[in-house]
Amino acid sequence: MPTGSRRRCARLPSFASEVRRELASGTATGLRPTNRAELAGLLDAAGRWDERGVTFRTPNAAVARSVMRLWRAEFGLGSRLSPVDTDSFGRARYAVRTEGNRTMQAADELSFARASRNPADRTAYLKGAFQGAGSVTRPGGRGGYHLEFVHSEEEFARRVVAFSRTHMQVTRRRGRWVAYTKSADGVTSLLAQMGLHDVVLEYEARAVLGEAKANANRVTNFDAANAERTANAAARQQKALEALDPGVLPPALREMLELRLEHHDASLAELARIADLSKSAVNHRLRRLLAISDQQSAVSR
Q1: Are 163 and 179 in contact (CB under 8 A)?
Q2: Is 276 strand, coil or helix?
Q3: CA neighbor of 84 nearest in space, from 55, 50, 113
Q4: What is the per-residue pLDDT for 299?
Q5: What's the pLDDT at 214?
Q6: Where are the beta strands (DSSP E) in the chain?
Q7: What kind and span of H or E run contains 236?
Q8: CB 100 within 8 A of CB 27
Q9: How much is the pTM?
């Protein structure tokens, strides 16, 4: 098998594909008495109608089977499933074809489901719309939080926004309309509305882990910055004290100068213990030594 083929076959499905498969399989929580609204969302998202029927296209086999099941369950109609082509990674794309007079009559009945104001119908429509035109980033991914519906028609994008319980924005990107949310609350709220509670829990777990890592990094960076400042200050102090002449200093300051130069890595507490002085006394004498060094430097300039 060619190397390129092996790479294409080994490619893992995207997280968005996994979410679509979960919706299509009915494992998302909640009752499913609103099949017509879900079918309406699927066909609006990725169906193309003509004078004889409708063709639904998808790269996801589970979604294709879901469309066939919904047609059969709601209208008693059989559909023809066939692979039509492959994408750039060698994965098959499927077409579900449903046609005939009853199919054309069903189009009018689906319009009633689409226009419903029932919250359950609207949620079911979103489930179908996401399977056909939705995408979401993986929890903890580099893209952060992002969920979107992409479609050629603005009306579809606006309908998705109207049916969503969270705030979404609509924009035009490369000739297509995009309804999207980039906030953590927006993504998790919409996923929860569609019954994807396990996915929401995964997002929240990743968010907690990410926050913990960020806090740890902040603490590490803070400690590293403090250590660098301390080391720089100690180096400047050492250089200043080495420039002093012990012979011209009072005995107490001369003793402190010798101790500091001998124990340049010692803390104030350690110097205080060696000199049998308090920390404040040690600090006071060191400050006097540094002041003398500053005076000498000013005179020499």
Answers
A1: no
A2: coil
A3: 55
A4: 67
A5: 58
A6: 47-49, 53-58, 80-86, 92-99, 134-136, 147-151, 169-173, 176-181
A7: helix 197-242
A8: no
A9: 0.66
Residue type for position 287: R
List C-alpha distances in Å: 283 to 98, 152, 157, 268, 288.
88, 73, 69, 7, 9
For residues 180 and 171, what is the distance between their CA atoms, to the nearest angstrom? 8
Residue 282 half-sphere exposure toward CB, CA atoms < 13 A: 17
CATH architecture of 3-210: Roll (3.10)
Instruction: Give the CA distances from residue 162 to residues 114, 149, 186, in Å, rounded to whole numbers and listed in that order.
Output: 12, 13, 14
Least confident piece of the model among 19-33, 60-74, 172-186, 254-268: 19-33
Please, what is the Cα angle at 167 between 164 and 168, to 5 degrees? 80
Size (the chain), residues: 301
Which two structure tokens, joined as six digits, stand for 46?
A: 């990725």
Angle between helices 35-46 and 61-75 (to 10 degrees): 130
Residue 40, number of CB atoms within 10 A of its CB: 28
Question: Where exactly are the structural domains of the chain?
Answer: 3-210, 243-300
Task: Pick one of 1.20.1330, 1.10.10, 3.30.980, 1.10.8 as the CATH number of 243-300.
Answer: 1.10.10
* Span 249-298, pLDDT tens digits: 888 888 888 888 887 777 778 878 888 888 888 888 888 888 887 777 76
Cα separation of 6 and 4, whole Å? Answer: 5
One-letter identity of residue 138: R
At 182 the three-state DSSP class reads: coil
Query: Sign (positive/negative) of CA torsion 23, 26, 29, 35?
Result: positive
Q: Are strands 92-99 and 134-136 parallel, antiparallel or unpaired?
A: unpaired
Reported as a single tens digit per residue, the pLDDT across 126-174 is 999 999 999 999 887 777 889 999 999 999 999 999 999 999 999 999 9
The β-bridge relationship of strands 92-99 and 53-58 is: antiparallel
